[in-house]
C-alpha cells in the first residue's frame, strides 16, 4: 500500500479558535487554513468576529482558546519572531503624527533593520500617491492619506503575510481604486503589474483581507469565507464566482443583513 502524501504546510493555520469578552463570544471554534501565496477574503456582518480574528492573527490580541500557527510556528510561543514577517493594516494606523510621512517610514525601516531603505521608501510613497507630501507632518493628513501611509508602512519590510482589516476605510474613490490595484498586484492578479523598482511589489504574498465590498473582495480573492456569529458558516474557492451569486449566498448565510461598515462591534 502506498504511503499517504504529506499534507501541504499552510502559511496560516487556525484550529478551534475562540475569543470571549466576558460572557460574550466573538469567535466560536474557528478553523482556517491559508496556503502560501493565497489571498483569503473574510466577509460578514458587524459583530461576526472578523476584526477580532485579524487582531489575533497579528498578535494584537490573545485568543481564549485554540491555536494559531504562522509559517509553521506557534503564534503563542514565537510571536516576536513572527511579527517581522507580518504586514498589518488595521483601524489604528500605527503612525506618528509629529513625524513626516518620510520620517515615519525611515523610523519603521530602522525597527526592521532595513539597509539603505531610501529607494524602497520612495517607491512605496509613489505607489500610494504620497511622494509629493513626503515632507509633510502626518497630523496634517486626511484620514484617507493616513490610511495610504499605513499601507506603505505595512509593505515596507516586504512581509510574507499581509493582514488587512478594512484597508479602504476613509479612502476617497480615487484612492480606493489605487488600493484595489495594489492589492491585485500583491495577490498576483494584476494584469499589468509594474516591476518592483516602480511599485515596491516583489511577489504574490499570503493575504488575509477583511472587507465589506463583495465585488472588490471577490476580485482579489482565491478563497472567500463568510463569518457569522463568530463561526465560519461558508467557505469557497472564489475563482469564477460572480458577485451576484455570492451576494445570494451571503444573504442566505447571514440573513440578508448585508456586510455592513468596518468593524465588528466588539473590542
**Shape from CA axes?**
globular
What's the alpha carbon Rg, rounded to whole Å?
Answer: 18 Å
CATH topology of the largest domain, anyone? Rossmann fold
Fraction of helical residues? 25-40%
Give the terminus-to-terminus CA distance. 51 Å
Query: How many domains is the backbone divided into?
Result: 2
Binned strand content:
15-25%
Sheet having the most strands: 6 strands, mixed
Tell me the name of the CATH class of the largest domain.
Alpha Beta
What class would the helix/strand composition place it in?
alpha/beta
Structure description:
The protein has two domains: 8-85 and 221-267, Rossmann fold (3-Layer(aba) Sandwich); 86-158 and 161-204, Rossmann fold (3-Layer(aba) Sandwich). Helices cover 33% and strands 23% of the residues. It is of the alpha/beta class and 267 residues long. It has nine helices and ten strands. The protein has a six-stranded mixed sheet, sandwiched between helices. The termini are far apart.
Reconstruct the topology from this structure.
Layout: E1 12-21, E2 24-34, E3 39-43, H1 50-57, E4 65-70, E5 73-74, H2 75-83, E6 86-89, H3 101-111, H4 118-127, H5 143-155, E7 161-165, H6 173-186, H7 196-199, E8 206-210, H8 214-220, E9 223-228, E10 231-237, H9 243-254
Parallel strand pairs: 3-8, 3-9, 6-7, 7-8
Antiparallel strand pairs: 1-2, 1-4, 4-5, 9-10
Helix pairs in contact: 3-4
